[in-house]
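Colleagues,

For the teaching module next term, I've prepared a clean inverse folding example: a structure given as tokens, and then the sequence designed for it. I'd like students to try predicting residues themselves before seeing the answer, so please don't circulate the second half yet.
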């Protein structure tokens, strides 16, 4: 019986906990549209304010990715977690109607987005370096559980705090969670990789992006991000419009489903390959989006979360593993940047486009639009994977 290389090392666990806290901090802002509407904003303002965060996160990704390969994974995560701690605290200075602080808020959202880009790209590159190659899907999938738990914890923790103590306590909660991530990653020891000297001569971000494999990965990541823009930015207004309490039920069900599927899907993908799993994930995500216009009660809301969450649980690790499998250390930061930057580009464009669609067709039309675009991604996946273009 062959010995399987260890996956759950102390470094893996420390990164898992740090990412859990970081994502919890980020996902408290799924409820930020409620702050925007309270201060006089509508769907258009929600789309712009939430979307500019993703624009900044995606737009800086080529340079962030280069920085991670050159400066190192841990050092970059340190920088990002400091930014993620400070930005929510600055929101405490906002007072009055939205029009009074609209442009300073946009600037804060840009810096906040850059901070998340640094953390997200650094931590997923870091963990990919320490996962055994033969357990890549399993390792990325199980590490991703940290983000999915964080996705549930953030809104579930922030919603009652916001309702009882107001938005100041909400922002303090987000800052405290990011500060916890900063503290948790500090003990990690970093040693030079044998291929570190190859970083200077490695292909650039844009040179890699021209390769067919990474164009496909980037395109599918954008489609996935478009779906995330719908679920992350507009489920809370939908629930509010339909007088549904406990918005966090959607995110808790979503995260629970995405966590549960990781326990078997990663091992299965390592055996049968990413191309067999990815279309199923996209199909479930489509179903979850198309169900949201029909939601009238908490049961349907949770069912939509279950479907999209299961899709998320399949899509994220398979796309990530597809991107970095058999790729050298010297370009893994850039490749992770293409993958995560594609998601953020989809979130940014989705936030803006869906915000305008929501103004024109309402929230039901918004989710139908998102569902049909992800359906287009399913078609792209089936065509590209059938022709073997991601190998």
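(Answer key — instructors only)
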């Amino acid at each position: 019986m062959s010995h399987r290389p260890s996956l759950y090392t102390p470094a893996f666990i420390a990164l898992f906990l740090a990412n859990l806290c970081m994502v919890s901090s980020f996902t408290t802002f799924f409820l930020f549209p409620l702050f925007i509407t309270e201060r006089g904003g509508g769907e258009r303002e929600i789309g712009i304010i939430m979307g500019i965060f993703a624009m900044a996160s995606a737009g800086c990704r080529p340079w962030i990715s280069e920085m991670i390969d050159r400066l190192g994974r841990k050092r970059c995560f340190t920088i990002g977690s400091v930014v993620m701690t400070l930005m929510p605290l600055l929101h405490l200075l906002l007072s009055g109607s939205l029009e009074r602080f609209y442009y300073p808020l946009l600037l804060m959202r840009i810096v906040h987005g850059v901070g998340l880009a640094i953390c997200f790209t650094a931590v997923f590159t870091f963990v990919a370096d320490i996962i055994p190659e033969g357990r890549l899907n399993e390792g990325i999938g199980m590490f991703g559980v940290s983000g999915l738990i964080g996705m549930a914890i953030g809104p579930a923790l922030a919603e009652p705090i916001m309702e009882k103590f107001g938005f100041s306590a909400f922002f303090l909660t987000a800052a405290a969670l990011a500060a916890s991530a900063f503290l948790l990653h500090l003990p990690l020891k970093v040693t030079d990789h044998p291929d570190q000297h190859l970083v200077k001569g490695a292909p650039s971000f844009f040179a890699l992006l021209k390769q067919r494999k990474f164009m496909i990965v980037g395109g599918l990541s954008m489609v996935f991000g478009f779906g995330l823009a719908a679920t992350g930015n507009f489920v809370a207004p939908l629930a509010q419009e339909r007088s549904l309490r406990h918005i966090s039920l959607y995110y808790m069900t979503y995260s629970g489903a995405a966590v549960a599927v990781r326990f078997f899907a990663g091992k299965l993908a390592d055996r049968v390959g990413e191309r067999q799993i990815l279309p199923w994930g996209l199909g479930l995500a489509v179903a979850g989006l198309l169900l949201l216009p029909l939601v009238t009660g908490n049961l349907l809301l949770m069912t939509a979360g279950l479907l999209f969450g299961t899709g998320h649980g399949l899509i994220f690790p398979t796309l990530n593993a597809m991107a970095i499998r058999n790729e050298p250390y010297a370009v893994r930061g850039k490749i992770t940047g293409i993958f995560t930057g594609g998601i953020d580009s989809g979130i940014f464009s989705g936030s803006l486009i869906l915000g305008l669609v929501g103004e024109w067709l309402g929230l039901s039309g918004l989710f139908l639009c998102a569902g049909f675009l992800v359906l287009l991604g399913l078609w792209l996946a089936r065509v590209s994977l059938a022709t073997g273009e991601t190998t």
